[in-house]
Amino acid sequence: MSRPGRAFHYDRVQRGFHWLMAALILVALALGVYAAWQVPGTSPRRELLDIHKSIGLTVLLLLPLRVVYRLIAGEPAYRSAPSRHAHIAATLAHLTLYALMLFLPISGYVYSAAGGYGLPWFGVFSFPRLVPVDKALSQAGDGAHYWIGWGFGIVLGLHLLAVAWHAWIRRDEVMGRMWPRGDARPV
């Protein structure tokens, strides 16, 4: 049962973090996949990868801000609480997404830094190289980045399927909790 005046959706800051990071991640994934099909060392691959790295490092910098704000602001109440199993599944899925948001850009950073590649941020500055140039470390970072990227794509796909299931099959309030308008249900 709901209490008057109680919020059942995430606040503007949490929704802002969610949608900004979702857009950045989708663009970074698309650019990374497209750049992988381009000839190494050529244009537009170099430029695409510079943007891909800039976006990935932006996500890495936003992540602790998002987590800290989430811990402070908390999670809004449900009008109708999900089952215990559904809540556990959602929590595990979200923790997995957060872990992937952390490890995907870190592995890309290690791949680039250890490989001697640039670490630009949208042409404004370059991130410092915190690991030595080391071919084996770069290859390990590359392999990790590749597999974590695939894992992220799979988990993201499952996340989107869960959103669709809640919105169009269950027709419950779950999607509306993060919907930009803050409505209980999307219109």
TrEMBL record:
Cytochrome b561 bacterial/Ni-hydrogenase domain segment(s): 9-180
Keyword Flavoprotein: no
UniProt superkingdom: Bacteria
Transmembrane residue ranges: 51-69, 90-111, 147-168
Keyword field contains Kinase: no
Keywords, alphabetical: Cell membrane, Electron transport, Heme, Iron, Membrane, Metal-binding, Transmembrane, Transmembrane helix, Transport
Topology in the lipid bilayer: Multi-pass membrane protein
Subcellular location: Cell membrane
Gene3D superfamilies membership: Transmembrane di-heme cytochromes, Chain C (1.20.950.20)
GO molecular function annotation: electron transfer activity; heme binding; metal ion binding
Assigned protein family: Belongs to the cytochrome b561 family.
Protein name per the record: Cytochrome B561
Organism: Methylobacterium aquaticum
Taxonomic path: Bacteria, Pseudomonadati, Pseudomonadota, Alphaproteobacteria, Hyphomicrobiales
